[in-house]
Amino acid sequence: MRKGVKNESSVIFIKGKFLIFIFMKEYKKTNLSIKRWAEEDRPREKLILKGKAVLSEAELIAILIGSGNMEMSAVELSRMLLKEVNNDLSELAKLSVQELKKFKGIGEAKAVSIISALELGKRRRMLDLPKKEMIASSKDIYDMMKPFLLDLMHEEFWVILLNRANGVIKKSSISIGGVSGTIADPKLVFKAALENLASAVILVHNHPSGNTNPSEADVKLTKKMVEAGKLLDIAVLDHLIFTDSSYFSFADEGRLV
């Protein structure tokens, strides 16, 4: 009796394996690679036949990476990647090569392709901005500094040097810091101003956190810079706190003292 049960179990087990094997074969048939999709559904062919505008962001990324992994196609992998950043391309642009490589199916080459494409898109966007030789508002400052501060994950402090007509002489990086702060030395700011015969300066630094509110250190530094500028007859016209989506202007808020 026991032998029969054992043999029966063995047969059932073998059948179970056979059924699972059949199921996996059927699953693989339904989870087709992009090359086996209908031509009009493949991202590359779809772009050629219907134009780039009809492609989703996931399909565009799929063209960049070329292939997925054993479990999902390039399009499915791209959708998962976008889902992890809440479908926000700006957040995707902030990921490093090592962070992208954490996704199964994304190696170094694919990660570099994604980062390069997003950087090209950012630069193209910057070229579409009107070129401004003069600064007339805080928005002009913000737009001017986007190519230098957008998508950064660390703080940087910059100074814009101006002539008497508020024309831009030069934009100069003063310091590069970490995630939570950077040190700005007034001596370096005004050294740059004096060397370039600037009549005024505008201070700019970014907050990677996205918080536009000035810290106590930002307020103290602004006051210190304004006082130093008065001694040298070089006006501090504004101090702008830059984030990827907005900004804070000390001048607009009447906080230049």
Summarize this entry quickly:
The protein has 257 residues and is an alpha+beta fold.
If you consult CATH, what is the topology of the largest domain? Answer: Cytidine Deaminase, domain 2
CATH superfamily of the largest domain: Cytidine Deaminase, domain 2
> What overall geometry do the principal axes of the alpha carbons give?
elongated
Question: What's the Cα radius of gyration?
Answer: 28 Å
Measured distance between first and last alpha carbons: 97 Å
CATH class of the largest domain: Alpha Beta
How many separate domains make up the residues? 2
Give the ordered list of helices and strands.
Answer: HHHHHHHHEEHEHEE
Average of the residue pLDDT scores? 85
Task: Return the CATH architecture of the largest domain.
Answer: 3-Layer(aba) Sandwich
Instruction: Give the strand content.
Output: 5-15%
- Summarize the biggest pleated sheet: 5 strands, mixed
Number of helices: 10
Tally of DSSP β-strands: 5
Structural class of the helix and strand makeup? alpha+beta
In the sheet with the most strands, the strands line up as: 2-1-3-4-5
Please estimate the helix content: 40-55%
Low-confidence stretches: 1-32
